[in-house]
Structure formats: structure tokens, C-alpha cells
């Protein structure tokens, strides 16, 4: 009787731990990406883009981010930051083609890192601007360069590139800005876990509860 009770308690513990691990680990994997905020600008306008990340390469601290510029930008000016050194590459046309931000100290996987730059758009800038990013870590690297095909969900990609949508300028030369969107709310939206990660986390929790129920029923049958 005593050995049966001990075995049942061990099963209960394993079930609870397993569910907790799934609930915490799965959302972390699902939300790992490099994001850009804001994700929409207006043709012919200027804006400050912030590229943020919260995970390294397989849990290795991040040492640098290389952001490649798409065609359609009239100007690029990286933001000075004491946490990063900045290297600028230019093309034959004199425009910035890539910016590499190197961390003064590697960014741990449990901390959020961010770099930013000011960009200017032409009147004929394409409707979407993709910014391929190479995230280099102490061990390994991740190339965030995948682009969704027409009708494909970007969240289904393993390593999607940050993408900014470009709205057409209004008749007066300025786009329609949503007054309800501020830098603070944009940052909050960037840090909010996506629906997929939340759903997977809930699934992990359910798995843990199911294991608990099975163990309890097994215990009652033996008692």
C-alpha cells in the first residue's frame, strides 16, 4: 500500500512538472523572432524603426544584429546607443545598404534587446519593405530572412524577416496617422506574445492537468 501511494505521488509530480514545462517552453519558442515597430510608414515620410528581440540563437546570448536595407529608402540614420557599436555599409549610390549593431556586452536570452534607426521614404517607395536581419550570437547565428508568399501566414515561417507596410500619401502630401498609436503603445504591441504562442502555452497546461487526472484515477483504482 505504501509503495503504491509513493508511486502515485511520483506520477502526480511528473505530470505537473511536465505540464508546467510545456506551458512555459512552448510559448518561448513560438515567440522567438526579430520584430520591427512601427510596422507601417507613409510614402514620402520619415520614421524611426526599432528592431527588437528577446531570444538568442538556441539560448545563446546575442552579440550583433546586421540589418540589410531594402530598395526604396531615401535615407538611413542609425540611432547612437551606448550599448551598441555601429558599422555602416554603403552602396555605389552612396546610400546605406546595411547597418551592423554590435553589442558592447552580449545580450542574455532572458532580456529584451533593441536597436533603432531613422529612415526616409520616397514617394514611390514599394508597398512593403523587408529588412533581412542576421542575428549573431556567442554560439551560432540566425538569419531572419524568410518572406511570406501571397496568402501565407507570416507566423508560420521559421525565421521571418521584419516587414514594414507603406501606406500611400494623402492628397496633402501626408499620410493618415492614427492618433491612438503612440511610441508607447507600439512598444507594448511589440512585447505582446502572439496568439500562437499563447495557444500553445495553454495546450501545455492542459497536458499537465490531463496527466494529473490520469494519475488520480489510477490511484483511486488501486485504493
UniProtKB/TrEMBL annotation:
The chain crosses the membrane at residues 199-219. Residues 1-30 form the signal peptide. Residues 170-195 are annotated as: Disordered. Pfam families: DUF1775. InterPro entries: YcnI-copper_dom (IPR012533), YcnI-like_sf (IPR038507). CDD domains: YcnI_like. Residues 33-166 form the YncI copper-binding domain. Keywords: Membrane, Signal, Transmembrane, Transmembrane helix. The keyword 4Fe-4S does not apply. This is Uncharacterized protein YcnI. It comes from Microbacterium phyllosphaerae.
Amino acid at each position: 500500500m505504501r509503495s503504491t501511494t509513493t508511486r502515485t505521488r511520483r506520477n502526480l509530480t511528473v505530470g505537473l512538472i511536465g505540464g508546467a514545462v510545456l506551458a512555459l517552453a512552448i510559448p518561448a519558442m513560438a515567440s522567438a523572432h526579430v520584430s520591427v515597430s512601427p510596422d507601417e510608414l507613409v510614402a514620402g515620410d520619415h520614421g524611426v524603426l526599432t528592431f527588437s528581440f528577446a531570444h538568442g540563437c538556441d539560448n545563446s546570448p546575442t552579440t550583433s544584429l546586421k540589418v540589410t536595407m531594402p530598395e526604396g529608402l531615401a535615407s538611413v540614420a542609425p540611432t547612437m546607443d551606448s550599448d551598441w557599436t555601429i558599422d555602416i555599409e554603403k552602396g555605389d549610390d552612396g546610400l546605406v545598404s546595411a547597418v551592423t549593431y554590435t553589442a558592447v556586452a552580449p545580450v542574455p536570452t532572458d532580456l529584451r534587446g533593441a536597436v533603432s534607426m531613422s529612415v526616409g521614404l520616397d514617394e514611390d517607395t514599394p508597398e512593403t519593405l523587408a529588412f533581412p536581419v542576421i542575428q549573431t550570437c556567442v554560439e551560432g547565428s540566425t538569419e531572419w530572412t524568410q518572406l511570406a508568399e501571397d496568402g501565407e501566414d507570416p507566423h508560420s515561417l521559421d525565421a521571418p524577416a521584419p516587414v514594414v507596410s507603406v501606406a500611400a500619401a494623402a492628397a496633402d502630401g501626408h499620410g493618415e496617422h492614427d492618433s491612438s498609436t503612440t511610441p508607447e503603445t507600439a512598444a507594448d504591441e511589440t512585447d505582446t506574445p502572439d496568439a500562437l504562442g499563447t495557444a500553445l502555452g495553454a495546450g501545455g497546461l492542459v497536458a499537465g492537468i490531463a496527466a494529473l487526472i490520469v494519475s488520480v484515477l489510477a490511484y483511486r483504482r488501486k485504493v
